[in-house]
Amino acid sequence: MAILMGVDGGGTKTFTVISDEYGNLLGSGISGCGNHQVNGIEQTLTNIHESIESALSGAKLKKGDIDFVQFGLAGADREKDFKILRPALGSLSFPTWDVVCDTMEGLRTGSPTNTGVVLVCGTGTNAAGRNKAGKVIQTGGFGYLYGDFAGGSQMAVETFRAAVRSWEKREQPSILVKEVPAFFNFSTMEELINSFLDTEVYEVPSELTEVLHKAADEGDPASIKILMETGRELGLAANSVIERLGDLDGIIPIVLTGSVLQKGRNKYLLDSIEKTISNINPDIKLCIPDMEPVYGSILLAMDHLDIVASIDVYKKFESYGGYKKWTRV
């Protein structure tokens, strides 16, 4: 029976799980940031190692018991990144392993063939795809200056801006004028703006997108506009991947990952994504995975060992939930 390890490294946490080939969860571990672009390679490797050791301890296993390790790491974007990551991960002394960008984890959670397009919309945004020949293409993921316009951080800024502009009557009336101050525990926009300017606040938390979703659900035109524009940007990124990738036959899966898409599931956002893509590529199917990205790494590990994941395995992975369910933070 094969024993598999998946390591999901992001900007805030590294989550490791160990599973057998039947999808039974044997152990898990969590540590800090797993993105070398954020933390530097030394601290990132320390966090990855800590997460792995915690999972091994919980499973009562040793490194030699693991048949394959799949790393899915944020920041593994370009060959320059892999030249940093491969030697560092090799020092962990696993005999068989692979590393991919965390976007490929996401793709695998929603595509049994590991082909198609994955759109990421969490704090930031990214788009990538893989065809049947194994070619991988990435569009975006490097911030606003390099063409991106989506992600929770950007959406939060647009939400705040919309509230300000509506309050100043530069834009149409919006319930954001009431909801945004309330989010920050102020009674009015005037109080909020004066306080932020006095204390030199020029950033807002990505959690402000929760206000955006709620306002859109209540029919607020300004909020709906922001979500539709975000959906259009994500759709354009998907079309870019499809055109640049090529060799995608039949119905193309568009896997939607990240908290804004997987947890928010806003109809205006999703409809805008689908409309933008299908206008150029009509043979698509949107898919929002119900499993955490780390299980995409386990599925990729199974692929490496030619293990076919059964429907039962998928159901188990979907039932496990996220790292908070399995590990004390």
UniProtKB/TrEMBL annotation:
UniProt cross-references to Gene3D superfamilies, sorted A to Z: 3.30.420.40
Q: Which InterPro entries match?
A: ATPase_BadF (IPR002731), ATPase_NBD (IPR043129), Euk-type_GlcNAc_Kinase (IPR052519)
All residue ranges annotated as the ATPase BadF/BadG/BcrA/BcrD type domain in the record:
6-301
Q: What is this protein called?
A: ATPase
Q: Identify the taxonomic lineage of the organism of origin.
A: Bacteria, Bacillati, Bacillota, Bacilli, Bacillales
